[in-house]
């Protein structure tokens, strides 16, 4: 089966910038109380009910934070370069290479799934299948938290952290993502849209959903 072009380009781009990206974002949570609050809520709701997957984990900064909150968490990312960076940053945690479009996980294995800005490189027409895949790996009663930039634009990115890259980034409407979550068989529990911080250009959204028991 031929890999979709957007997957190939996204992997290659993040491999190119992995180390610089990891360094630039290493301490980003310290200046973002909204992110910390949503992650803490997610961690409290999931608790010790089972494993949690940070899906599209990048260099592992959120994976490590969730582990510090007491979750049994591991990370999966499309980019081998990002996975290498995550393993160096969090040597006590498990990280592996994998795609959101075909997760290397059995049905119903996760108590929690995090898609933290990891849906933004998926074309909107492909998102229903990706969210169905995330729902597939959740156990009954499991929760999914996703975060993304608000809007309806497609941005073509050719430069990142001083390197040439080639990938698209999509801003998404919360109502659109909420409908897709419902279509994937999940129940929306919470929605937060906040104004941008000084370092951001557009509002940011967080959606929390639950797989029916």
How far apart are the termini? 34 Å
CATH homology-level superfamily: Vaccinia Virus protein VP39
User: Percent helix among the residues?
Assistant: 25-40%
CATH architecture: 3-Layer(aba) Sandwich
Strand content: 25-35%
- What's the CATH C level? Alpha Beta
Structural class: alpha/beta
Order of helices and strands: HHEHEHEEHEEEHEE
Question: What oligomeric state is this?
Answer: single chain
Number of helices: 6
Largest sheet: 7 strands, mixed
Rg, Å, rounded: 16 Å
The fold-level CATH name is Rossmann fold
Are there runs of 5+ residues with pLDDT below 50, and where?
none
GO molecular function: methyltransferase activity
EC number: 2.1.1.-
Domain Methyltransferase: 54-142
Organism: Amycolatopsis melonis
